[in-house]
Amino acid sequence: MKTVDEVWQLLRRQVSAREAEEVELSHASGAVLREDVRATEDQPAFDRSAVDGFVVLANDACEEFAVVGNIRAGDGGNYELVRGQALRIATGALVPVGGEVVMLEDSTESGGRVLLNKRGRNHVRRRGEDAKAGEVVVAAGTAIREGTVGLLASLGCVRPKVTRALDLLHVATGNELTGAEEKPSAGQVRDSNSPLVAAWARSRALRIRQKRVGEDADALSLAIEGHRDLLLISGGASVGSHDCTEKVLAAAGFEILVTNVAVRPGKPLIVARRGDEWAFGLPGNPLSHFVCLNVFVDAALSSMRSGQAAPALLKGRALSDIAGNPRETWWPAVEHSEGLRPLRWTSSGDLTSLAVADTLVRVPSSGLAAGAETEFIRTT
């Protein structure tokens, strides 16, 4: 049985980054950047007004000024400031050399003159204060989000180089499963793992296909035919007489690398490899699914996308005691400004805590006392 750290080390050593490709910026959200993006010019490229207001010479001691014109955003004119005179200026407009900007709210305009009631703050965004030309602004390995897209556009990066989109096949197994939209009959349960995996995959910009089969080795073998970056099989990972995931993967040419992990929940985890294709046999209980996706599959996915196979471990404090277990536990919790509040769960089949859980807290076998510092990962 491997430890959590041993599984991470295995993935770090063996999972390789996928090919990079250039994509249209409008299609880049969710992808991982594979090259540093530098500023091609100073950011901002010129002194800009941070507010709507008036611009005067910074060393002009007058209190009242004649308003002689306007500077609008986008104007590229060579405006000259004269003592005793002020120019109206719009947010984002170029500030003339030697200018001081006073915000509209700190001024009183009447009859073509303006009284500046408060000076000295100088609401100017200086050239290069965000980044200098040639400086790395967005580093390789950054996951591109909506804000990143806006930043890249401001840098003129319209075709970023990113890891290509990854393909995922997810197969849910179990004779007891019925669709979430159906009413289960006696002995059946709704399939919660398929929607869970689908939501997880969409949040990571994966191209996902999903299937559902019964507890049948032949049906499972047929379902996993083909090649993709990542294969997830829900259920059949334990040691019961009907659990066939390991056998089917081995028959399909996968090398079985892990069959059990000293973790709670999620002990019966299978990790297998066939060339550059990786397969995970996930325990069928839904909380175990959630933990394994975020602790292990995310680690492999990180390496495929950026070459770094480790979850983003953060530091936090437990807000209440958390009991230990012989196996390391990853406990659902909610992150607050003052710390991590563990949620109640009764078993690996208990989904109720996942209604609000946004973190998983790493709990050593000795447990955690309230106020103790520990590691955690965010799941959102």
Characterise the protein shown here.
With 380 residues, the chain is an alpha+beta fold. The chain has four domains: 4-17 and 166-306, MoaB/Mog-like domain (Molybdenum Cofactor Biosythetic Enzyme, Chain A); 25-42 and 129-163, Alpha-Beta Complex (Molybdopterin biosynthesis moea protein, domain 2); 48-125, Molybdopterin biosynthesis moeA protein, domain 3 (Beta Complex), CATH 2.170.190; 314-378, MoeA, C-terminal, domain IV (Beta-clip), CATH 2.40.340. The protein is built from six helices and 26 strands. It has helices at 4-14, 146-154, 193-203, 217-223, 245-251, 286-306; strands spanning 20-22, 37-38, 48-49, 53-57, 64-71, 85-89, 99-103, 107-110, 113-116, 124-125, 136-138, 161-163, 167-173, 177-178, 189-190, 207-213, 230-234, 255-258, 263-264, 270-274, 277-282, 314-317, 328-336, 339-342, 359-363, 373-378. The chain has a six-stranded mixed β-sheet with strand order 7-4-6-5-9-8, with no helix packed on it. The chain has a six-stranded mixed β-sheet with strand order 16-13-17-21-20-18, sandwiched between helices. Strands 19, 22, 23, 24, 25 and 26 form a six-stranded mixed β-sheet that branches. The protein is elongated.
